[in-house]
């Protein structure tokens, strides 16, 4: 009798311990997640806070949290022609993203829904172009653009961004399109839908979150691109990332005005991500399921 009671008590204790361990593990995991989130967000928050400081307060060590706030740094950024660089970045990013998506969707459709001959080889060719470092091809590109008279040209920079992001967009869109049920496409074909009707009216609405995710990632990559923009542009087609580098100087203080310029530079990306966040999450989840 006593042995049975001990076994019953032991089983009851084990049943109570398991939920407690599970709850403790969940609390620890949540705590670690919050620590990592705050650690990743803190530099951005500090950059925004520094943008409102005076140059003297931004350069103090140890840093001060209670100080006079000002908008003079933002005015100084606009006085240095920030809108011109912002417009160039916006033009190159939007134009290149639109061209990339127009080319990537039919290409990915042909490689996933209607596989062509040796489509796998084509896919590996696309991704192999990402293996080559930009530093290895920048000199031929520079000489080519120089001979064509297209150095410091925003159209040339947009075309380069198309070549840079197109392989990635094709791979992403192929992953999204592979999840479209084949029965839907077959039903559309039975109803007499031609290729463009099948692609535009049947398939694209289904993978719209994936299209938004791929477009947003291409836009961010083009917006943040520094290497080509710094080497192939000077004044007319200069974009925002090289413009931010111009604030770094060995003479005088620049932390506050640089933080103000960086804060303004990240705003379009943050706004675009905020608007597309629902579709972005759904799109990335689509790619993860395959």
What does it look like?
It is a single chain. The chain is mainly α. The protein is built from 14 helices and no strands. Helix 7 packs antiparallel against helix 10. The longest helix is centred in the N-terminal third of the chain and has 50 residues. The radius of gyration is 26 Å and the shape is flat.
Identify the notable features of this structure and list them briefly.
290 residues, mainly alpha
Distance between the first and last residues' Cα: 56 Å
Helix content: over 70%
Question: How much strand content do the residues show?
Answer: under 5%
Class by alpha and beta content: mainly alpha
Overall average pLDDT? 84
Order of helices and strands: HHHHHHHHHHHHHH
The count of strands amounts to: 0
Present the secondary structure layout.
Blueprint: H1 2-51, H2 55-58, H3 72-79, H4 82-112, H5 119-128, H6 134-148, H7 154-177, H8 182-190, H9 195-206, H10 208-224, H11 227-232, H12 240-245, H13 255-275, H14 277-289
How would you concisely characterize the structure shown here?
The chain is mainly α and 290 residues long. Helices cover 78% and strands 0% of the residues.
């Amino acid at each position: 009798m006593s042995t049975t009671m001990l076994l019953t008590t032991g089983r009851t204790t084990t049943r109570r311990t398991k939920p407690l361990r599970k709850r403790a593990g969940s609390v620890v995991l949540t705590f670690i997640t919050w620590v990592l989130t705050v650690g990743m967000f803190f530099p951005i928050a500090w950059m925004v806070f520094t943008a409102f400081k005076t140059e003297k307060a931004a350069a103090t060590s140890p840093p001060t949290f209670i100080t006079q706030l000002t908008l003079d740094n933002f005015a100084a950024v606009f006085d240095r022609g920030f809108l011109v660089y912002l417009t160039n970045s916006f033009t190159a990013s939007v134009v290149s993203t639109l061209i990339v998506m127009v080319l990537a969707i039919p290409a990915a459709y042909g490689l996933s829904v209607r596989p062509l001959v040796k489509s796998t080889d084509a896919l590996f060719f696309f991704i192999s172009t990402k293996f080559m470092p930009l530093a290895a091809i920048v000199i031929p590109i520079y000489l080519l653009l120089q001979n064509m008279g297209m150095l410091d040209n925003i159209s040339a920079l947009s075309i380069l961004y198309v070549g840079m992001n197109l392989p990635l967009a094709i791979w992403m869109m192929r992953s999204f399109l592979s999840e479209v049920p084949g029965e839907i496409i077959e039903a559309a074909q039975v109803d007499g839908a031609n290729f463009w009707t099948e692609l535009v009216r049947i398939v694209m609405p289904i993978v719209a979150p994936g299209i938004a995710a791929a477009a947003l990632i291409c836009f961010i990559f083009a917006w943040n691109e520094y290497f080509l923009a710094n080497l192939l542009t000077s004044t007319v087609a200069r974009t925002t990332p090289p413009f931010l580098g111009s604030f770094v100087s060995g003479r005088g203080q620049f932390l506050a005005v640089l933080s103000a310029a960086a804060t303004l530079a990240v705003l379009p990306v943050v706004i675009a991500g905020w608007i597309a966040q629902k579709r972005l999450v759904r799109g990335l989840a689509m790619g993860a399921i395959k």
